[in-house]
Amino acid sequence: MEPKLTCSATVPEMFSKLMPTIAENRSMIDALFDDVDIMLHREFQNAENPSLRFCVYFSDGVSDSMLIGEEVIKPLILASNLSQDSGLYLAVRDHVELVGDMKESQDMQEIVEAITYGDTLLLVEGFDTGILISSKNFNLRGISEPEGEKVLLGPREGFNEGLMTNLSMLRRRLRTYHLKFKLDQLGRQTKTGICVAYLDHIVNPALLDELMSRLEKIDIDGVLDSEYIAEFIAEGSALGFRTVGATERPDVVAGRLLEGRIAVFVDGSPVVLTLPYLFVENFHSSEDYYMGNLYATYARLLRLLSFFFAITVPAFFIVIVGYHHELLPPGLIFSFTSARQNVPLPAAIECFLMLLLFDILRETGIRTPGYVGQAVGFVGGIVIGQSAVEANLIAAPMVIVVAFAGICIIMIPRLTMASLAARYGTLLMASLFGLPGFILALFVVAVHVLRLKSFSVPMCLTMEQLSREPRQDSFVRASWPKMMTRLESLSENRVRVRPKPTDSDGGTEDA
After folding, report:
1. N or C: which end of the chain has fewer CB within 10 A?
2. How far is CA 237 from CA 263, 364, 401, 452, in A?
């Protein structure tokens, strides 16, 4: 029998509840955390009345030991007028209330999850209820600009691995009571915190219900990154197109929430998922909204052309060289023929090998840290390409074609996987069947893109939708005064900025 992918992480039934004595509770907790040397505890008593005994449990490294000592242990040791009666528990709680967030609990499952996440458990002799005190002290990466989403204009903030830090950055941008946060946990072993964020007066309730339904069906031992969730909730794509958005920028998330989207935050990951996701977003950049609309439109069209060239140029070159010389002027045909006369390999195999070599160099440059990776990529490409041409292993025009297609892929990082799959598929069909195979492959890619959906929302708008919902923010970005509506399929409230009422309406109304 194959092992299951998920295992239960619940506390055994015999340890489900706290007991009235510290000795019994210590026995249970020590049994649960056997061989966990960083799970620390300390027993102490009140200086005025030694019969009043207490015990704290906390996890070293993720809890603030200074806070525990100064705000929990010290006040209880020095407290006066504490007596062993029914009011003792309330008195103890009052003495440690300065630490901030506190919660009472008898459930051992809840207690285990809390103290492993940095909280402190306070036990009082004679009571079967513990006090969970917030004492988290994580070392997090500082807020900095995301390496993969750098801009010349606009905010330079990026999310980090702290869930509450990320939520605070979003809250600072959307100061409205309509911004809702729904917290939950995923992962039987990791108990990873997640948060679903949306604007309740804009979001489509059907989309929200669909997301919550898909999240409830996730059953896995651990969630270590937002991509784990993306693969569970996203619609599949045979060519690797993303159907769920991902970003590390707070301004991008805020902008998408204002369009009626939903964001999913994952504790421990700086990448936030946004949905539904439209195909045109692959060619957007957050910088498009911080510069003139004319230049933003020009940049988007360049990215669209780069995607088209990345998947078609190598295949079309093989069609011309191998099957249809008549498509080129005689002078250019002679130049290509003379460049290839000493090359031993067929053009199709030569193209496949060069594309594979370019992908190896690109991956090497990405995985190698710092400026060394960039140097390896550039120097490796120049040296290997020049040496291969001089040794008559490849033709010079092939180097130009492969380098141009590779640069085009770098222009569209969100479509890297999809571009590679479509490029190799198109190249294979063109190599086997010539121009008909090339056209058929492009047709298959186009149909696949048109059929993509993100949470049942078509990623590409049909002609009917375009006529009913004119896009002011697609491949062409209109100026801000003209972007007045949201997509009906994404939002209940289509109006982006409500016009001010006339005097007969009795004043003005906030947006």
Report:
1. N
2. 21, 27, 28, 7
In which residue are the tokens 């528990």 written?
A: 89
Q: Which alpha helices (DSSP H) does 183-249 contain, by range?
A: 205-216, 226-233
For the sheet containing 53-59, what is the strand order?
39-45, 53-59, 120-124, 130-133, 102-105
Which residue type, as a one-letter code, is found at position 73? I
> 9-25, pLDDT tens digit by residue?
676 777 778 888 888 88
Angle at 429 between CA 423 and CA 431, to 5 degrees: 95
Report the pLDDT averaged over residues 215-219. Answer: 91
One-letter identity of residue 259:
E
| Beta-carbon count within 10 A of 381 CB | 19
- Residue pair 252/172 in contact (Cβ under 8 Å)? The answer is no
* Dmax (CA) of the chain: 104
Indicate if the pLDDT at residue 506 is higher than 50: no
Predicted TM-score (pTM) of this structure: 0.81
Residues 154 and 150: their CA atoms lie apart, in Å, by 9
String of DSSP letters for 255-285: HHHHTT-EEEEETT-S-EEEES--GGGGG--
